[in-house]
Amino acid sequence: MSTQSPTQADPISTLLAMTDLLTPYAIRAAVSLDLPRLVAEGVRTPAALAEHCGADPRALASLAAYLARKGIFLETEEGLSLTPVGQLLLFEQSRIMLSTGGAADHLHRAWPGLTHAVRTGASGYEALFGHDFWSTLSGDPALSASFDRYMEHWGERWIPAAVTARDWRADGHIVDVGGGAGQFVGALLRANPTLEGSVVDLPAAAERARKAFADAGLASRAQVFEASFFDELPRHGDLYILAQVLHDWPDEAALAILRRCAAAAGPEGKVLIVERVMGQAPTADQLASDLFMLVLFGAKERTLAEFGDLASGAGLAVAGTHDIGFGLFAIELRPSARSAET
Predict the structure, then answer these.
(1) Is 106 known to be catalytic?
(2) What number of helices (H) and strands (E) belong to the chain?
C-alpha cells in the first residue's frame, strides 16, 4: 500500500512540471499571435484563428489544443473560450511580459547562461551574446523602445506608492540619476508643486525626458542632463535618487556610481536608493530577482547591510528606510560623520 499522501504530487510529475519549457513558450506563442484577444472577441475555431493571424492551420490547432489541456483555453461545442487564467493574457502587462521579440523576452534569453554565471559570478548574458545588455539596447532602437515600455509599465505600479512613501516637500531640487524618460521625477513634481527636478541619463533617454516634461507642462521646473552616471554629475541638487540602478551593477561599478552621487550631493545633500532589499531569509521572489541580476549583469540584489557597506565606501551612511511596497524600499543616505569631518 502506498504511504504517499493523496495531496502529495508524484515526484516525477513534479520534476517534469518544474523543468517543462514547452508550456512557457506555448503561452508566449499564443500571446504573440494575439490568440487570447481573438478568442475573447469571438474568433472561436482554430481554423478561423489561423486565418486571422496568418498561421498554419494544423500547427495552430495543435497549439490551441495543448493550451486547452494546460488550462488556458476551454474547448466547447461552440469552439474555444478563455479560462480565468487565460483571461489574464488579455492585460497589457501580459503582452509586454510575454510577447516574443520584446524586451522582456530578450532579457529572459539570458537564462541559458545561468550555469556560467553561478560558476563564475559573471554575467551569463555576456557569455552568451558576447557583449553586455546595454550594448544590445544601444544598437537596436526597436528593442530599446520595447525596454522603455517594459520599465514604464513597471513604474506605473511602484512609482505612485513611492510618491506617498515619504515626505518629499523639503527636498528642494531632486536629481534622478539614470532616470530614463523622467517618469519618477514627473510624478514627484506633479504631487509636490514646490519641488524642482532633474533627470540625468544618456542622450536617447534624455530626449524622451525632455519631451515628457514638455508634454506634461513641467518644463519650467524640470531639467534634463545628458551624461552617464559614471561621469561627474550636476551639483545643484538637494537629493540624488538612484532608483533600481545599483542592482544592475557589480559592487565595484555600483560603488563608483554611488561615489558620483555623493560628490554631487556634497556635505549637506542626501542620496536616496530605491531598491529591493534581500531579507535574512529571502523569499522565492527575492532569490529569483537576485539570480536574474546575476545572469543578466553579474550583479545582485543586496541586503540592507550590503547597501550600508556600499554607502560607507562612498562616505555615506544609512539614515533611514521607507517601505514602498512591491518588494522595494527607499534607503536614505547622508554623509557619514567621518566623511563630514574630512
Answers:
(1) no
(2) 18, 10
- Distance (Å, rounded) from C-alpha 51 to C-alpha 193? 53
* Third-level CATH fold of 11-96: Arc Repressor Mutant, subunit A (1.10.10)
* Amino acid at site 108: H
Write the CB contacts of 291 (distance below 8 Å, at least 6 apart in sequence).
114, 117
Q: In Å, how far from its chain's centre is CA 80?
A: 33
In tens, the pLDDT along 229-245 reads 999 999 989 999 999 99
pLDDT of 336: 87
Residue boundaries of the structural domains of the chain: 11-96, 153-341
Q: Which fold has domain 153-341?
A: Rossmann fold (3.40.50)
In angstroms, the CA 176 to CA 121 distance is 29
- Residues of the chain whose pLDDT is less than 50? 1-2, 6, 340, 342
Identify the active-site residue in 52, 131, 236, 247: 247
Give the per-residue pLDDT at 4. Answer: 53
* Sign of the Cα pseudo-torsion (228, 231, 236, 238, in order): positive
HEC sequence for 131-154: CCHHHHHHCCHHHHHHHHHHHHHH
Q: What pLDDT score does 3 carry? A: 52
Measured between alpha carbons, how far is 112 from 258 in angstroms, rounded to an integer? 31
Task: Supply the pTM of this predicted model.
Answer: 0.90
